[in-house]
Amino acid sequence: MGASDPVSTSSATRGFLARLLGRTAAEMTFLDHLEELRRVIISCLTAIAIGSCVAYFFSDRILDYIVVSQVGEAQFLHPMEAFSVRIKIAVLCGVIATIPFTMFEIWGFILPGLMGKERRIVLPMVVGSVLLFLGGMSFSYFVLTPMMLDLLMGFSTEHVKANITVSYLIDFVLKLAAASGLMFQLPLVVAVLTMLRMVTPRFLWSKWRHAIVIILVVSAVVTPGDGPSQIILAAPIIVLYFLSILVSLAIVRGRHDAPAVTSGEPEAGGVSGRTGEVGTSPEAVPGSTPPPSAGAVERPSGLSKGARPHLKDVLEPHIEDGPRAPDAPGDSPRDEGGRGGQT
User: Is 342 helix (H, G, I), strand (E, B) or coil?
Assistant: First the structure.
């Protein structure tokens, strides 16, 4: 029993590496895919749980750092509030710390089902999405959140003091960071829409004024609506919008250059193939046109002529065979019906 364990473990390792490299030994059934998905989910959740447990021992220091860097001091109003906040920080740090392993597992699961071109597209998009989201969260935490808190705390008076609870502060920081991270996904969204042919660089450039207005409106909704914080959040999003135009332009140029290289070879092969076929069946030459000639040559010449929608092409064979009609008594009803239009 013990001797079979290393064999099964090594085979599982080889199978995982084969899936990661896109070289599966055999096609997987639907139940095999579900089993593999279950394994990936359990692995990711286990990694997050381990990372959260480790991060909990540092959650007090992380909480103190957030409070001191943002407002200086905070309070909690019920006994479970501080504990729940530390749990929330530990889980968040566990998720962030295990992002490389989670992406590794998810990429190994979806890689066998992707074609070569899709693999070259999906991996940069996933990595770019993670980097943009982390960049947006960092911008929110180090730039946007301190300015917004200073602005909001400035509305206090001599007899109205701010006593911020720690749970409200953490929720405020996390929500603003998540919103900034999502807004920083603009270049990736534009890239996907360009690949789906839903937007073009010309369209994006022609609507840049409308885009700026929309970005300012969204920034006013996310922020308190004052001028400084709204502009601070909108400024990098506007820069990312114009960067998205360049990304869309690069995608369109790459898409136009690829068919120019590949389209000439099939056409050359197709022309030479049609030339050989036309040489073997001369009757198909007069009635065929260059674009659909390959489809016309495959069918019998009589059927191809009769199937053409033009009346002239339908009547010409009957006009040419007119003098031979009396010599074929069996074909006289057909020939009479075919020459009915001539009489």
Answer: coil
